[in-house]
Amino acid sequence: MLGSLAGKVVVVLGGSSGIGLATARAARAQGADVVITGRDQTRLQAAQTALGGGVRIGQFDAAHENPAREFFDSLPAIDHIFSTAGTLVHDVHLAPSRTELRPAMGVRFWAVLYAAKFGAPKMRPGGSFVFMSGTAARRPLAGAAVASASCGAVESFARALTLDLAPLRVNVIQPGYVDTPLFDNLLGDQRDAILAAAGEKLPVKRIGRAEEIADAVLFLMKNGYMNGATLTIDGGGLLV
């Protein structure tokens, strides 16, 4: 029997939209005390309103050490942390400068490092981390080598933390194509056509929904025997 999230404190880093917001909504529906974070105060407040009363927000950049420390220090106790932080930088032939390339690795990796460093001391027994990577860790994205590498780095880091932070649990969710606002800026007017074409290539004939990833994240939080695992949820994309 899976554990319950009722009364548990669930922190979602990057919880103002997409997979993070869907996870916050699902956790709240199961009785969790939810805290969402993000860099944009306006988006956080809109998400807080959409989620309903009682949801707390924290406005800071999860990839920066001091704000992350201050945020986690402000929480008396935590049961589960889910980090969605990450960004994509187009880097064909590694043409961008080091400064331009840095966020593609830094945002995803440093966010989970600080979540572990400052979140672990606040975790109650039975607590867990869920980090988000992506199928690019196994099938790299052409023209996004550094972002692909960041997914692999997070997965390796999570496996090491499984040993270092025991008995706290550490798992990774590895999504494929998912319909989220991230694609609005990346794909522009071609968004719907490109995503539809991507879905047709999958065995399930569609791309994923944020709610489906959220369901898998909550499974990793509630199943006390899931540990050190990377759970792929990509509609069979890695097979084709």
Describe the structure.
- By secondary structure, the chain is an alpha/beta fold.
- The chain has a single domain, classed as 3-Layer(aba) Sandwich (Rossmann fold).
- 43% of the residues lie in helices and 19% in strands.
- The chain contains eight helices and nine strands.
- The chain has helices at residues 18-29, 41-51, 65-73, 98-119, 145-164, 182-187, 191-200, 210-222; strands at 9-13, 33-38, 56-59, 78-83, 123-132, 169-175, 178-179, 208-209, 230-233.
- The strands form two sheets. It has a seven-stranded parallel β-sheet, sandwiched between helices.
- α5 (145-164) links the parallel β5 (123-132) and β6 (169-175).
- α1 packs across α8, α3 runs parallel beside α4 (98-119) and α4 (98-119) packs parallel to α5.
- The longest helix has 22 residues, at 98-119.
- The radius of gyration is 17 Å and the shape is globular.
- The protein starts with 8 loop residues before the first strand and ends in a 7-residue tail after the last strand.
- The model has no long low-confidence stretch (mean pLDDT 94).
Number of domains: 1
The helix/strand class is alpha/beta
Report the strand count. Answer: 9
Strand proportion, as a percent range, falls in 15-25%
Looking at the structure, the CATH topology is Rossmann fold
Q: Separation of termini?
A: 34 Å
Mean of all residue-level pLDDT scores = 94
Radius of gyration: 17 Å
Largest sheet: 7 strands, parallel
Overall shape: globular
Overall CATH architecture: 3-Layer(aba) Sandwich
Secondary-structure element series: EHEHEHEHEHEEHHEHE
Biggest sheet: strand arrangement = 3-2-1-4-5-6-9
